[in-house]
Amino acid sequence: MPDGSCPIILNAYFCQKLIAKEDSKTTHEMYTPLPRRNITLAQIFHIKYLTNNLPKNQVVCSNLATTSIDGSHGHEDREQHLVAGTPLRNSLLDMVGSLGTAPWNRVGVRVVVQRVYSLPGRDGTMIQKRSLPGNTDLPGARLCLLVQDAYGMFGEVHMERAVSKIRQLEGKSCSLTGVKVLQKATRVRTPGLFSLIDTLWPSVIPLKTPSQDQTCEEVKTNLPPPAFCYILSALPNVGQIDIIKDNFLLKLYQPPVLQCLREIFQTLDVVARCSFYARVIYQRPQLKSLLLLEQREIWLLVTDVTLQTKDESELHLPKTLPVCVTSSCVLGPEVLEALTMAVPHTFLFRDALREQGQIMCVERTILLPEKLFVYEASGVGSCELTSPVMLDELNAFTPINSICSVQGTVAGVDESTAFSWPVCDQCGNGRLEQRPEDGGTLFCGDCLKMVTSPVLKRHLQVFLDCPSRSQCSVKVKLLQSSISSLLRFAAHEDGSYEVKSILGKEVKLLSCFVQSITTYPTHCIRLEEVELLCSEAPADRRSTLHL
User: Fold this and answer.
1) What integer pLDDT is reported at residue 230 of this predicted model?
2) pTM for this prediction
């Protein structure tokens, strides 16, 4: 604009790129517009009965020596869109600029695949069902690639359908063609994506400059972190990604840096991604069916050798850490299956988010069960525990959604929530029917027989006087085994009991989950006694009561 007196908004997406004062032959080869192709709506939307009578476009595959693992069904599916001699650029920005308004443009780009992960469906939902044999992802989730070009630019590629062996692309240099731009992502719009990109910055080797193919020593330290990137989508039947040989791009790959839980705890106040091995010793909620996992937040209580090792110099180092698995984290079928089993699991947590003093599994976080990974040579060894898991005793630093051990004496009973119910002595079914025609006898619908000796179960919450938290009220919901021990000598023949008969009883080493901590109007801690996941007999059921 004359004299710059009027501000303007320029949309460069529809502009033609021109190069001034350069070799005309090179410029013509790189930036000559592609010939317009007549593609009907019937071809775009794959209406077969209209396209069968149309002449086919001539297609010649690229001359590059590549290993194709694209998502198309075959050569016929790509015939409508690909053209001969697909040029490959070194810059994602160049490729995006050359796309223009034609998403089927033949221009491609050389990239290295930094990460492969899954994201929830675009409507924000996932279908948490068991996948088909051989499929490692859940239906309703999108497979994505985080790629980087030779100049340090990042892009996230969304695959429109399942691609065989796509997870093997991580760490490989590839050619990417047949994509369209979904959106330009910024740090404000997609902070989760850039928290992952920041773990890959700065580059491990000097990057190339946009004006030349030589490496530049100053670029590695002087370039600021990327402020934006492009989210791309592989076009159906056209999007193609092939492994190529590019030693420079291979050197750009940065695998996750594995840390031990002790290191992560010491830097929880820093917002960053982290990766670690950990043993899951308790999960909440307990999941007995995959159907219960839909759109659900899960808390995993984890530990490793570095937390379990006693260190007198770090008094506030916890024995376990809580990990929140949010509903936006896509879990593979092997992980889902493991979470439904009442045994301890060892997982590899890749690119979990460390934020606000918590560890969270969010979008772009990957969980892998032990059978799917090999302990990498990173200085962090196996998290196999050779001794029983130790818990922290309830104290002033115990956070919510953690587990701890608690002991004390019974100071009171919450009678408003106390109740009992009969269950079948054979199968444990608690939904018994009382039949007046049989004199009020109980009938079990699962066993299909009369229950003559039902077992009485109870719901009981008690208040404890704890030496470690003497200034607050500690309320504990007890397990059946602890209730039975507590009422062993206090209950009458009809199952009733007197509260005063259990007051002052000593309770030692209950393993508890911290449900809530309130400070107003009174300081109260609500706990629930739990059973830790244990591969052996419940010896670590330090939940035994010594009366």
Assistant:
1) 94
2) 0.77
